[in-house]
Design a protein that fits this description.
Chain lengths: 66, 305
């Protein structure tokens, strides 16, 4: 049984212990919540979402320049 | 988190407003707020012909989408800058912009720098002092010149850009660090037309970059996710990250930084409105566009090199 959640930002994949909030996971990865949008199964989710084992969260970077 | 309006499941938490919204309410709220700021700042009316500068990015395509929803007459302008850097950046951003316009049957002007002037931004940057270190300065000059030219040649009443609050706060931060008085006086959501310069407006200036990304994703707008390869590691990106660190600790900090600047300016904190410094403009003898530079404008000087 899987106990981790996969978080993807650009080409990077991170395995995070399930059961914590997305906000706590972003903190562990040193990612500012303001700089990303969080997507699960095509739906946007808020940072209070509890991470479930085996699921994948995709982070979309929001900062653009040029 | 629950939606503040309907109690459904929220898809975005906007901490600066202490408000979470579901998809439907967010997609209704954002255009409504845009309309509110268009009216508050008297940006344009439904009778005006609007030219939207579109880059293929989330902000400009979202702006074009919102103006359609609100019922404005808005055409697009895409400037093909010839930036490749191994990822075909300009080609992909043009493809996405054309796809957006075609799917919605919108009118899109395309200016191709190579076809019109026989050059591109990387070449111009490498040939000029202006862009030797970073092409962004030369690129900005090209975009400003061409946006104004198309607005003038095709009789548009107003030129709209997709600058969001993070863009504006980063510019303000940069100008404040350098106490650049002229730029501080000129930074505003609306720049009036004068002496051949088109009226410029920024209808998204009150929204965080994160909200614009959420809007584009929720509306299914296919935009270019990559930032311009020349903008990676730029000072404006660094300033945005710094401001986001502040925002993380103090929700609303970057909004207050910019919005209170506008209020302070209106109250005359930086200079009496009647003594605003406005450089004298004359027409460039080569292209006929207004310029404050001696003789030819900076664009024509750059092209002549």
């Amino acid at each position: 049984m899987e106990y981790t959640t996969t978080i993807i930002l650009r080409d990077q994949k991170y395995e995070i212990k399930a059961g914590m909030t997305l906000l706590a996971a972003l903190g562990k990865l040193d990612i500012l919540p303001e700089s990303v949008i969080c997507v699960r199964d095509g739906d946007l989710i808020t940072e209070d979402t509890i991470l479930k084992p085996g699921e994948t969260i995709k982070l979309v970077s929001v900062i653009s320049g040029g | 988190m629950r939606c503040k309006k309907c109690g459904g499941k929220a898809v975005i938490n906007m901490r600066q407003h202490n408000m979470g919204l579901c998809k439907d309410d967010f997609l209704q709220w954002l255009p409504e707020q845009t309309q509110k700021f268009i009216e508050k700042y008297k940006m344009f009316t439904p009778d005006d012909k609007i030219l939207v500068a579109v880059s293929g990015g989330k902000d400009s395509l979202a702006l074009w989408d919102i103006l359609q929803i609100l019922g404005y007459q808005a055409d697009g302008l895409y400037i093909a800058l010839g930036i490749d850097e191994g990822i075909g950046y300009s080609a992909e951003s043009q493809r996405l912009t054309e796809k957006f316009a075609n799917e919605r049957d919108l009118n899109l002007h395309i200016v191709n720098l190579a076809a019109s002037y026989g050059t591109d931004v990387p070449t111009l940057a490498s040939q000029t002092k202006r862009g030797r270190d970073k092409p962004c300065s030369a690129c900005g000059l090209v975009k400003r010149h061409e946006m104004n030219r198309i607005a003038r040649d095709f009789g548009y009443d107003v030129l709209a850009t997709g600058h969001n609050l993070d863009d504006e706060a980063a510019i303000l931060f940069s100008n404040t660090l350098q106490w650049n008085g002229d730029y501080l006086l000129r930074q505003a959501p609306v720049l009036a037309s004068r002496d051949g310069l088109a009226r410029k407006v920024k209808p998204l200036f009150h929204f965080y970059e994160r909200e614009m990304a959420a809007y584009s994703l929720l509306r299914g707008i296919d935009y270019i996710y990559d930032e311009c390869p020349f903008a990676e590691g730029s000072t404006s990106t660094q300033y945005k990250e710094l401001l986001n660190q502040l925002e993380n600790q103090h929700p609303g900090a970057k909004m207050h930084f910019y919005v209170k600047f506008l209020t302070a300016k209106k109250k005359g904190l930086f200079a009496e409105p009647t003594t605003e410094i406005v450089p004298d403009l004359h027409l460039c003898p080569t292209c006929g566009q207004p310029t404050s530079a001696a003789n030819e404008c900076s664009f024509c000087k750059m092209m002549a090199k």
